[in-house]
Amino acid sequence: MTVYAIIGGTGLTQLDGLTINAALHLDTPYGAPSAPVLRGQYASGEEVLFLARHGHPHRIPPHQVNYRANLWALKESGAKAIIAVNAVGGIHSSMATGHFCLPHQLIDYTSGREHTFYEGELEHVTHVDFSHPYDTALRAKLAAALDQHRCSYSSHGVYGCTQGPRLETVAEIARMERDGCDIVGMTGMPEAALARELALPYACLALVVNPAAGKSNTLITMAEIERALEEGMGRVKSVLAHVLTS
């Protein structure tokens, strides 16, 4: 049986409908994870794990998330596949506020993050194949759920991951668009690569919460982002429920 782990991003620090059986306060070789791993059952009884990426309440900025501890804790708790929920900005014209994207590729613009489990004195250098960072079968399950709930979404896209916590400049977004990015976020890496190192199938459910810098005639405000999160997280939870119970 596949035990899904949900990593909740901005706007999703807890998962409605999850009957919690245990809150696992795990120590890892990489320090403490962002929050306890919640183990419980969802609707039809399947075991589910949940971890709030930024803590609960939301307190850890994207560049200070202990991604290695988070992924290690989920693996140790029995996760067999991971669905990551991310709030993102829209770069491509199709990525309007409220639109979902299931990225199939990513570009990493971050720096200074602890991005691998393979470091220090190793018996041999290890390279993992990261040609296709997101799991195809898991993305298909999410697409079926989005179809079922009649959500506007793109089944493909390129996620550009920036360092944060500041938002990007207009010139940076223009560069990312030239690079082929469709959406921009701050937490997609090294999370996806660490999941690959642990052999955990990983997919991203990205909700567009604002046009990226220069993609609208107004400045980006937190009020705008919070409004989009409030409107969109109900649909996120419905999609997750469909995947977890199907």
Describe this structure in words.
The protein is of the alpha/beta class. It has a single domain, classed as Rossmann fold, CATH 3.40.50. It is 26% helix and 24% strand. α2 crosses α5. It is globular, with a radius of gyration of 17 Å. The two termini are 12 Å apart.
Q: Runs with pLDDT <50, length 5+?
A: none
CATH level 1 name: Alpha Beta
Backbone CA Rg: 17 Å
Assigned CATH superfamily: Nucleoside phosphorylase domain
Termini, distance in Å?
Answer: 12 Å
Shape: globular
CATH architecture name: 3-Layer(aba) Sandwich
Task: Quickly describe the structure.
Helices cover 26% and strands 24% of the residues. With 246 residues, the protein is of the alpha/beta class. The protein has one domain (4-114, 130-245): Rossmann fold (3-Layer(aba) Sandwich), CATH 3.40.50.1580.
Highlighted features:
Rossmann fold, single chain, 246 residues, alpha/beta, eleven-stranded mixed sheet, 5 helices
Topology:
Blueprint: E1 4-8, E2 18-24, E3 37-42, E4 46-52, H1 67-76, E5 81-90, E6 100-101, E7 105-108, H2 136-148, E8 153-154, E9 158-161, H3 170-179, E10 183-185, H4 191-197, E11 202-211, H5 222-245
Parallel strand pairs: 1-4, 1-5, 5-11, 6-8, 7-9, 9-10
Antiparallel strand pairs: 2-3, 3-4, 5-10, 6-11
